[in-house]
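TICKET #2291
ISSUE: user wants both folds in one file
ATTACHMENT 1:
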Amino acid sequence: MNRTEKAAVIERIKAKAQDASITVVADFKGMPVEEMLRLRVKLREVGGELLIVKNTLARIAFTDGRHDAIKDMFRENCALALGFSDPVALAKAITDFARTSKKLVLRHGSLEGKALTSAELEDLAKLPGKQELLAMTLGTMNAVPTNFVSLFANVIRGMLYALKAIEEKKAA
């Protein structure tokens, strides 16, 4: 690979890393190609991408960027998982895959520029996803007006029962 090809690769990695909200670095030493393809497909399903790059090129690409905190942590064989939409979904996908795979080992990551350990990545994967959080928020927002209407209905219902009792008393 000559100097211009390396510069093009660095620029491509840098552009993708700038767009990514989360970056996960994993060791894939000895992983079969079929398993790597399944990982790529799984990451694409959640809005992510898997890159295999040389450590030196990754260090240069990550310098002075969004994920600068992990630039000095590239060693041996590295796979970069980049998440562009929902960071929790990518963390869940790669953590689940690492549990079933014997060869994929999570090393560290970066979320919005903050360095994460592999334990923190697993904790992130345990959080509810973006869709689940939106559903929980909408449920909470819907509960307030529903409870408000129920409260007023109970007040009116009580008043109607009292009026009905008065009417029956006067009728008797």
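ATTACHMENT 2:
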Amino acid sequence: MSNYWLIIVGYFIGSIPFSYIVGRLWAGIDIRQCGSGNVGMTNVWRNAGPAAGITALVLDLGKGVLAVWLAGQYGNDLIVALSGIAVLAGHSWPVFLGFKGGKLVATGVGVITAISPPVGISAMLIWIVVTGLTRYVSVGSITAIVFIPFLMFAFELGTPFLALGLFAAIFAIYKHIPNIKRLLAGTEPRIVFKKN
């Protein structure tokens, strides 16, 4: 029996709109109608609070981990990589929200960490450092995801995973085009650290 069904399962796992669900349950809001309108952790954080944002982050990371773990139980590296791409596609274009989803960074880090913890941890550290220095979540996200193919190459991952990393980088940049335009226009919101 073919294991390609795992790719379909990966897409549907990715399509579970945790940020939307968290926004509804936590604050009674439709996150698509708030702030940037993005169905992602940052928008949940800004409109429903840090605890809700962290919850959305953990759940979106978990989607990536679950899809890769499940594919790894039944498939080879190619199936795992394709399932990783599928869960990212599901997160970004979820069937349950009319194919309008998040920007795949959190779920992407979950996928990459499940495949290679050193690569995933390195990407997270890059995100923390760049976001901390610039105070732009989008700059941290773009930088971290762009580094993933290079990190995969450095850690000598196989061709299917390099293709996955390249896919993630290209589509993350595509999904962040509105952020890039705001950065160039000087209108992208920064993280604000409140003083007591």
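RESOLUTION: both attachments delivered.
EXTRA DETAIL ON ATTACHMENT 2: The CA atoms of residues 115 and 124 lie 14 Å apart.
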